[in-house]
Design a protein that fits this description.
By secondary structure, the protein is mostly helical. It contains 9 helices and no strands.
Length: 217
């Protein structure tokens, strides 16, 4: 088996890696936005819950949380399929980081714009939807790019719950051929290629939605 054959064999698992990454990005965005909206509620209890959530899920290692979800919850009668377990785990962790990114972006929105919206008769939620949210998302793009690439780097943990992504394919192939150096070098090349495509895509989006005056081309 040549090095090219190894690359082609491992590439079969790339589809699962990309699918897990995209699904986890979507889950993280939904959770992060939900936490951000929840944090705008003028209740001390809500802000305390949000603070505890972000602290806890930014502190627990991803692999530990994945084991809790996939191996631990069945003990309580809750069984979650492997793919959903991985997406849920990465979504919970990513959502905690994204909520902090969004919170910082909201703080950068001019209060004069919010006051002007309220003076024009907009409700609190209307001003959030039409004034705060668009600017928040645009200013959060650099931080989101970093977080989304981090999700990709966590996907090798998927092999621990049986998802046949790149790492699981590599371990099976290494056990069969005993050519670990070549195989894991090929894994690195494939991950780098996926990472590069993701980064170029995110950078194109960042350039498209960049706020004029805040950055130079």
């Amino acid at each position: 088996m040549t090095f090219w054959d190894i690359l082609l064999t491992l590439a079969k698992g790339a589809g699962y890696t990309i699918l897990v990454t995209l699904a986890s990005i979507g889950a993280g965005l939904v959770i992060g936005l939900a936490l951000t909206v929840f944090g705008l509620v003028q209740w001390k209890a809500a802000r305390a819950i949000l603070a505890v959530y972000t602290y806890v899920f930014r502190s627990i290692p991803v692999l530990v949380l994945l084991f809790i979800v996939f191996f631990g919850l069945p003990g309580a009668g809750i069984r979650i399929p492997p793919f959903l377990s991985m997406v849920l785990t990465l979504g919970l962790v990513s959502g905690a980081y994204l909520a902090e990114i969004f919170r910082g972006a909201i703080a950068a929105v001019s209060q004069d714009e919010i006051l002007a919206a309220e003076a024009a008769g907009m409700s609190r939620w209307q001003s959030f939807y039409y004034i705060i949210l668009p600017q928040m998302l645009r200013m959060s793009i650099p931080g989101m790019i970093n977080e989304f690439t981090s999700i990709l780097k966590y996907t090798p943990f998927a092999y621990t719950v049986g998802i046949p992504e790149i790492m699981k394919q590599a371990m099976s192939l290494a056990a069969l051929t005993l050519r670990g150096l070549e195989i894991y070098l090929a894994v690195g090349i494939i991950y780098f290629a996926i990472y590069k495509v993701f980064v170029l895509t995110f950078m194109a989006l960042e350039k498209k939605f960049r706020i004029p005056g805040l950055a130079h081309d």
